[in-house]
Amino acid sequence: MTKAESKYFNTARRMDDAFLSLMEQKSFEYITVTEICKKAGVNRSTFYLHYETIGDLLTECVEQINQQFLLCFKESASEFRQRIGTASLEELFLITPEYLIPYLTYILEHKTVFKVVLANPEVMQTSKTYDFMFGDILDQILARHNVPERDRGYMLSFYIDGMMGIAKRWLQSNCVDSIDDIARIIMCVVRR
Hints:
The N and C termini lie far apart (47 Å). The chain has helices at 3-25, 33-40, 44-50, 54-70, 77-83, 97-109, 111-119, 126-144, 149-172, 179-189. The protein is globular. The protein is mainly α. Helix 1 crosses helix 4 (54-70) and helix 1 (3-25) packs across helix 7 (111-119).
């Protein structure tokens, strides 16, 4: 990466951080380009060099959060997806410490961002994000477990909404319970 590219990405990162910080304080629709620029320490022309609209900045923030989240697992989503057809059914049960601990650790390390995401699910496109990240994988896993196709959408909704409900409650308590406690609760709720 050249020095110019590094500066470009550093500036974009500052605007991402400024935007997420402002989202903690006020609703998306009330955030202005001027506020983002002031908080990030950049000019309006710099903002428009990177983005056409605040919506574009939002999309980039969501993509960045998703990419960082997927990096916390030992195996990439595409590698795991390739193994679904041949893995044992036992390997396809994802409510285990192996998967929950990185997930909960990521939430704890980025709790400010997750509070913003959970407080603004429509704006932060969480349903689209979870459909993208989990829908493909979990649908294939349910198929391997012989769950009828007509039932899978309901099961996926229950799973995703339940996990997010626990995460939301944990975040509301400022994550006072340990990661191990939350993982234990999730494993207790979602039994094999």
